[in-house]
What does this fold into?
Amino acid sequence: MTSRLLMAYGARDRRAGAAVRGADDVRGSTRATPILDHDDPLVRAIAGRVVSEATPLEALRAAHRIIARDVRPVYSVEDRRRVSRTLRLGRGSCSQRMAALEAVARAVRVRTRVRGLLVDGAFWYPRFPRLKPFVPAQVLLAWPEFRIDGAWLPIGELFTGPAAGRHYANDGGETLFDAVARTGIDWDGGSPAEVSTCAADGGSCDLSAQLVADLGHFDDRDTLFDRHGQTLCRTARTLTEPVLGRWTPATRTPAPRTPA
It folds into this structure.
């Protein structure tokens, strides 16, 4: 049911022949990039609010809560949007909100990097039940990791503690960005099942069955998208962004368009 018509053709070829860089070879950094423009006042403002936390991990958790509260989730398809632009709009996709957390992390001197994951488009069927033929066959996801206490911590392991009593189903108003605050998200579980498996109490969620390919690690999401492109081709992004960029998860129709 998924579609390849909207995907970037050149990017597909690059992904198919890509040499995967080992995690040990990618050190990440704290530098600003075109996407992670952490010198912007809005990013600095969030960094200033969390830098006094007792530990870098607590600072990241606090930043996650601020972004989750202040940046409304939408289905934007512009993965290369500057973090400052996302914060000014007050809305962003799961990818854009993760980028915001990365930018704040770098602003407080926590190194970040990303892992490139190609996820089966069918994973998003519950969100678009009437649009399945238009869902891309594969979705490129930049999965952030943070250097904490000498080890790399994926965003899916950012929070610990009691779960909310339900597993992640990728539907309704909760996005992957929101879900990590209450459940562990794992792409390496190696579950033998043909579908994703989530603990009954919501404490962990193995999504490895949805992973089509692991593209390896990159110093930043800019490098990932430079090398492998975005999920949709430019024409598809141009045509769909005005609608999807304002469509909030859990709503049946996109929100009315308002001036940016």
Observations:
- Residues 1-5, 161-165, 191-196, 252-260 have pLDDT under 50 and may be disordered.
